[in-house]
Amino acid sequence: MQASRARLFKEYKEVQREKVADPDIQLVCDDSNIFKWTALIKGPSETPYDGGVFQLAFSVPEQYPLQPPQVRFLTKIFHPNVHFKTGEICLDILKNAWSPAWTLQSVCRAIIALMAHPEPDSPLNCDSGNLLRSGDIRGYQSMARMYTRLAAMPKKGELVFR
Amino acid sequence: MDSDEQDLYYGSGGDVVSEEEDGYYCNDGDAAGDDEPDRTTFTQETTYTILREEDVKKRAENDIAQVSTLLSVSRGLACHLLCRNNWCLNAVYDQWFADAERSDELPPHQESGEQLCGICFEPFEIEDMVSASCVHSFCAGCWKTYISFSINDGPGCLRLQCPEPKCRAVAGVDMVESMASVDEKQKYYGYLYRSYVECNRNRKWCPASGCEFAVEFKDAGGCESYDVTCDCYYKFCWNCIEESHRPVDCKTVEKWIKKNSSEAENTNWILAYTKPCPKCHRAIEKNQGCNHMTCRSPCKHQFCWVCLGPWEKHTSNSTCNTYRNQSSNINEESRERVKHFLARYTHYYERWDSNDKSKKRALTDLNQARNQHIDTLAQTQGENMAGVQFVIDAWTQIVECRRVLKWSYAYGYYHTSKEKPGKLDFFGYLQGEAEAALERLHYCAEKEMSKYLIADRPLEDFKDFKSKLLQLTAVTGNYFQNLVLALENDLSEVDDETSGTKN
Ligand SMILES: [Zn+2]
Ligand SMILES: [Zn+2]
Ligand SMILES: [Zn+2]
Ligand SMILES: [Zn+2]
Ligand SMILES: [Zn+2]
Ligand SMILES: [Zn+2]
């Protein structure tokens, strides 16, 4: 518990410094609970998520960083490795390939990389996975773009990203 | 996306025999332990060795030492390679020379000054930091919790790697030795030696409950018997891990065991012997000959078993035929058919089961003879240990024969039928002869023995008893050998004969 707090505090300070360094990620710690974080990530360019801003919720276990954080999308996203209803993410580093050298920041980076390179063979969203597996890239892209526009585009007056 | 096993070895060296459902299989001609006398048993073309806990440890350590010496790698990397290749030495070597694995071990990298630990993000002097065989250093405290967490998390700790993402450097037994607590080390070695037995296709644990011995089996190809006798005296089939089951094959055993436990048999039973009460629909069992059924309270509905009509309509001069309609008629026929099949199955099952029980009792008696009776006999009858060995031999024969007899009933169920009366008769004849001999032997060992066990002085007729039991043991053994051979040949001798009985 003490170790995880100390480590999260270090990450908090690091995030403050890195904010300028990585303009695509904005990690925020819950005011009252250092084990709850949210992140806003920019959809990578040249993907159907381009122009969208996606919100992630982090729940950090007491055994962190020996155990991985639980992360899910709060913003609806059409992606083979993200559960369409729950936002759950299928990513090896969040499961068996986790290592304590990963940080919340680097997890965000890995998720951005996953958005750009979906893995249709381990789908959590079968519709999306099937489109990609059957080679219907355009079908997948138009669906993903539609949901990006519907759910991840900041509406007028809503300032989500600094 | 969850797979981290791309680096697993699936090559095909000259020693690869097959690559079946659970992955890599190789007929490992392992050299470990060749310099010591093994408790090796030869059964036909087959060799197996019983491994005690200390043998497992010794052999695993031998393999580790051999890999470490031959490839000039650390003990940790040797362990890792063995675990990853299911303790198959040839696979380890093949992979090593095919792979760029060698570059994984780098000389530790020397610098001075301060560095941030990549886990706790605290600064440390370089010389206070630890790395696996790679350039990624972490503080000793973080390594300790990392290793301890992994060991307490399960056998996955055998594949522990450097915490740096994507770095494949092994954090092996060397690091565990220097950083883990005594308990954790013990746990780690427990997993290591267990994997020596569980991950290799040539080794298995003895399935007897409470037995901690392992068996190494070397199938020299086309071996006829998979029978293994563990040092705990349990006899089992290497192939299917069930109790030894000669003369029937593994497939028949599996079918039979499934049948015995299947829900379907239950359903058939209910179908044949019970019917739902037409009023409250609870299953009512017919246990008497009379067709006048009375449901259990509180229903107490009275009905006719045959037509399910209310009983009060069955006056003395109107039988239920009056009520019987076509559909219930068909129902009754299928019920009779099921009953016939069930009766046949029950016939074989009851005999299989009763011999199973006899076998279990005989096994207890064998152990009692071994631990107690032979000492008593040796003392009171003035014999040495070799002189009372015949008692053990008799009980061993009894256990063995009960087991054969038991499985012969599973054979009977699947391989005999009224359509081939010759075969059925011959089977019955051989089985009957063997069974009769066994009953004589069992009686002699059980009943006639007791007199000598309670005697307080040498009895004159002990010599006679001894030669009688010896003879019965031999005779019974012969009968059963004939039975086993005949059934293993599927009674082929009678296939082209008109009459089944022979002498
Ligand atoms: Zn550290
Ligand atoms: Zn490393
Ligand atoms: Zn055993
Ligand atoms: Zn078998
Ligand atoms: Zn009733
Ligand atoms: Zn009736």
Automatic annotation (TrEMBL), chain A:
Domain (UBC core) ranges: 3-153
Residue ranges crossing the lipid bilayer per the database entry: none
GO biological process terms on file: peroxisome organization
SUPFAM superfamilies reported in the protein's UniProt record: UBC-like
Enzyme Commission number: 2.3.2.23
SMART domains in the cross-refs: UBCc
Keyword set, alphabetical order: ATP-binding, Nucleotide-binding, Peroxisome biogenesis, Transferase, Ubl conjugation pathway
Top-level division of the source organism's lineage: Eukaryota
Enzyme class: transferase
InterPro entries: Ub_conjugating_enzyme, UBC, UBQ-conjugating_AS, UBQ-conjugating_enzyme/RWD
Matches recorded under PROSITE patterns: UBC_1 (PS00183), UBC_2 (PS50127)
Single GO MF descriptor: ATP binding
Active site (record annotation): 90 (glycyl thioester intermediate)
Similarity remark: Belongs to the ubiquitin-conjugating enzyme family.
Name used for this protein in its record: E2 ubiquitin-conjugating enzyme
Natural source organism: Sesamum indicum
Gene that encodes the chain: LOC105164758
From TrEMBL, chain B:
Function: Might act as an E3 ubiquitin-protein ligase, or as part of E3 complex, which accepts ubiquitin from specific E2 ubiquitin-conjugating enzymes and then transfers it to substrates.
Alphabetical keyword list: Metal-binding, Repeat, Transferase, Ubl conjugation pathway, Zinc, Zinc-finger
Organism, as annotated: Sesamum indicum (Oriental sesame)
SMART domains cross-referenced by the UniProt entry: IBR
Class of enzymatic activity (EC top level): transferase
Region of interest called Disordered, as start-end residue ranges on this chain: 1-40
Record-linked InterPro entries: Ariadne, E3_UB_ligase_RBR, IBR_dom, TRIAD_supradom, Znf_RING, Znf_RING/FYVE/PHD, Znf_RING_CS
GO molecular function terms attached to this record: ubiquitin protein ligase activity; zinc ion binding
CDD domains given in the database record: BRcat_RBR_ANKIB1 (cd20346)
Protein EC: 2.3.2.31
Annotated coiled-coil segments of the chain: none
Gene Ontology terms: biological process: protein ubiquitination
Cofactor: Zn(2+)
UniProt family annotation: Belongs to the RBR family. Ariadne subfamily.
Pfam families the record matches: Ariadne (PF19422), IBR (PF01485), IBR_1 (PF22191)
Keyword Ubl conjugation: no
This protein's name: RBR-type E3 ubiquitin transferase
Pathway: Protein modification; protein ubiquitination
Record's catalysed reaction(s): [E2 ubiquitin-conjugating enzyme]-S-ubiquitinyl-L-cysteine + [acceptor protein]-L-lysine = [E2 ubiquitin-conjugating enzyme]-L-cysteine + [acceptor protein]-N(6)-ubiquitinyl-L-lysine
Residue intervals of the RING-type domain: 113-324, 117-166, 277-324
